Amino acid sequence: MTDWITIANDHLSAAINPLGAELSSLKDAARRELMTDADPAFWTGRAPLLFPVVGKPAGEVIRIQGRDYPMKQHGFARRLPFTLVDHGPTHATFRLAESDETRVHYPFAFTLDATFRLDGATLHTDIVISNPNAQDMPASFGFHPAFAWPLPGGAERGQHVITFGQNEPDGVRPIADDGTIKAGSDPSPLDGRTLHLADDLFAHDALVWDNVRSSSVTYGAPGGPHLRIDFPDTPMLGIWTKPGARYICVEPWHGIADPEGYAGEFIDKAGIFLIPPGGSKSISMAVTLLP
């Protein structure tokens, strides 16, 4: 915890762990924690950055030009130390670059910059993934922040809801026992644009929208603070917890787990983007504390 990098203003304070460039604490002006307690009985993660895959690869491998590379769920960035390259009172930038270790899993040179910056009551997380290779680089990326459930100062846990910014007519994608994505869809759990949070929603893992219309959701309960999560650059969304845990994850994704039984090329998966030689991909998320 002593190695966490802190930023703060009059509205919010945040702490980022250089291991994984993981947002590990977000507090309001009254020093109330807005993120998970990371209880090891449930999950010790806080807000991992998911790169270069999102979700579970079938057989824990990805195939690139006919060769299989070992790849764990959600990729390797969350398990590696980032370098702090810039830090001021209200901002910090961390960088991960390729290494002998990453090339075992992903045969590309890359840099991944993660900038955390406070602007009023908003924490912005700005990601830039750069491709120095001479060929296109396929990748995916996701956010995975775990917010306190219940939020401090509000109603009890059972009164918390997530409200989508747009109507979401599609159902959610079912998750197979091995963590990949089944074919078809399950009925939408939404009441209009509102998800009434309850443990039984997550008895079979996350709720996954693979074509989300909304670019923001609002999370909270009557009488207490709310968080608006904006995700303008990600076409997919997961919402997840473990039943009984004191957190709810709102996960904007540009990528998704493999289809069940998938044996194709990584480049052909849903949600994969291609970064051209010398180019970059920017993906952002913002969390705003509302009264």
From TrEMBL:
It comes from the Bacteria. This is Aldose 1-epimerase family protein. InterPro entries: Aldose_1/G6P_1-epimerase, Gal_mutarotase_sf_dom, GH-type_carb-bd, LacX.
